[in-house]
């Protein structure tokens, strides 16, 4: 039997290890689709007409929650997401946005400082303020959201289990 050259063997071993590690990454919370606009909030704020109606998967840190008569608005400081759609708070900020949720939302379920990921559709923008500065907030009508627990944020364990099949644990 002929042996593979050492460099080829090392390349194949490295490729196999990389594929195995990629397969162990936690699954995304929301299923991405081709319709999802892959842009940060600050880009939408600059050209809202290009993105109104488009789906997004955004995340970040809760700044404030305000209950209205028929909805709840959550101001979020946007961050990029990792492959599991967890916000990356040590990354550069991608702008603020307002998540609009139907009905009453308990503010204690979205405490200031909590990290959240959501999916929804762009509804335009609203001019408001951050401190004394004028600010343009993209508005997102939320379809679904996830508040990350400290354990989930620390966990690098895959959300995949092996048994008689492969399943995703949420």
* Beta-strand residue percentage: 35-45%
How would you characterize the largest beta sheet?
Answer: 5 strands, mixed, barrel
Please state the overall shape, judged from the principal axes of the Cα atoms: globular
Structural class by SSE content = alpha+beta
The residue fraction in helices comes out at 10-25%
The helix/strand order is HHHEEEEEHEE
Task: Note the gap between the termini.
Answer: 47 Å
CATH fold name of the domain at 41-154, please? Answer: OB fold (Dihydrolipoamide Acetyltransferase, E2P)
Number of strands: 7
CATH class of the domain at 41-154: Mainly Beta
CATH architecture of the domain at 41-154: Beta Barrel
Instruction: Please count the helical segments.
Output: 4
Radius of gyration: 20 Å
Low-confidence parts:
17-23, 158-163
The largest sheet has its strands arranged as 1-2-3-5-4
Q: What would the average pLDDT be, to the nearest integer?
A: 85
CATH homologous group name of the domain at 41-154:
Nucleic acid-binding proteins
Layout of helices and strands:
Elements: H1 6-23, H2 41-46, H3 48-51, E1 55-67, E2 71-79, E3 95-102, E4 115-130, E5 133-147, H4 150-154, E6 160-162, E7 166-168
Parallel strand pairs: 3-5
Antiparallel strand pairs: 1-2, 1-4, 2-3, 4-5, 6-7
